[in-house]
Amino acid sequence: MESEAGVYHVLNRGNYRTDVFRDDKTKAAFLKCLMEACTRTGWLLHAWCIMSNHYHLAISTPRANLVDGMRWLMGTFAIRFNLFRKEHGHMFQGRYKSLVVDPNGGLGPLSHYIHLNPVRAGLCKVSELRRYRWSSVRWLFGQSYRPECFDPRPALAHAGQLGDTPAGTANYLKYLEWLAEDELARKQQRFDSMSKGWLIGTENFAKAMVQEHRELAAGGPRPAHELRAAREAAWQEELEAILRRSRRTAADLRAAGKSAEWKLAIAATLKARTTVTNRWLGENLHLGSLHEVSRKVAAWTRRTVPVVHKKTQPTTNHKARPR
């Protein structure tokens, strides 16, 4: 069940509990894919950690696109991982698990739970989290490497209405130190059920979600062609915006050759900003078959034409979020 402004705890484990993230390079590769996924989907990332054989994400989806985004994230990471390792087969146990999260009563505790994962595993102390590379706590303390998609406000608010300031983040670390030592507080925040079941939140929130699910079920499942049409409408809207900025038209797309540099630049930008498929790009940008699109865009990206690339780049990127 997907909804606009939906909040989820997403997690997955390595196949047969193997150490998928066996080294820092692999963790960095997954984090890079995650940042690309956030750019493409508009996700807000509230907390994350990458362990040796699993990961945890706290995500908001303003565009109701968790499934679409996760399909891109897991597929892209698997392809890159297998190419790098020269391996084959499934990396994870199966489809990721996603728990619906109450944005008011569940997101704050979930963020704390995720942030303390490395501490519970004995990988570092709470005081070391601000320098620990594979948890979002580090982002709280550094504007230079904080991406725009990161939103720590729910965690800070739940920890005592703390501000996203140096003083607020320092106090948040103290809060995590207290929480790591206080077993009763962790029980009250339901740490033991953060990765179980289907929902994180209050009883009233659970009842509301059950009712929403019943209402959606009564209307029948949304046909696949409607879901595809909604995705493609979003891709078309993005394409039209890029064409306006580039002072190009749909007629220009039809008239230009399949290998026109400016068309490849637009295709590369769409791939960077959305979950668009090569087939759709080939048909709508008149670039040829999906295999031609894949080959041409990859070659263009490797050599990058700076002027055209700059003209078609998105207006938002992973710059530091101002405090």
Descriptive account of the structure:
Helices cover 52% and strands 9% of the residues. It is built from 15 helices and 5 strands. The chain folds into 2 domains: 212 residues, Alpha-Beta Plaits; 89 residues, no CATH class. It has 323 residues and is of the alpha+beta class. Strands 2-3-1-4-5 form a 5-stranded mixed sheet, with helices on both faces.
Helix content: 40-55%
Q: Roughly how many Å apart are the termini?
A: 34 Å
Largest sheet: 5 strands, mixed
Structural class, by secondary structure, is: alpha+beta
Shape: elongated
Low-pLDDT residue spans: 305-323
For this entry, give a set of tags.
2 domains, 52% helix, elongated, 5 strands, Alpha-Beta Plaits, 323 residues, alpha+beta, 5-stranded mixed sheet
Summarize the SSE layout with pairings.
Blueprint: E1 6-13, H1 24-41, E2 44-50, E3 54-61, H2 66-85, E4 97-101, H3 107-115, H4 117-120, H5 137-140, H6 153-158, H7 166-181, H8 183-188, E5 199-200, H9 203-218, H10 224-246, H11 250-255, H12 261-273, H13 278-284, H14 290-303, H15 306-312
Parallel strand pairs: 4-5
Antiparallel strand pairs: 1-3, 1-4, 2-3
Helix pairs in contact: 1-2, 12-14, 13-14
Summarize this entry quickly.
The protein is α+β, with helices and mostly antiparallel strands.
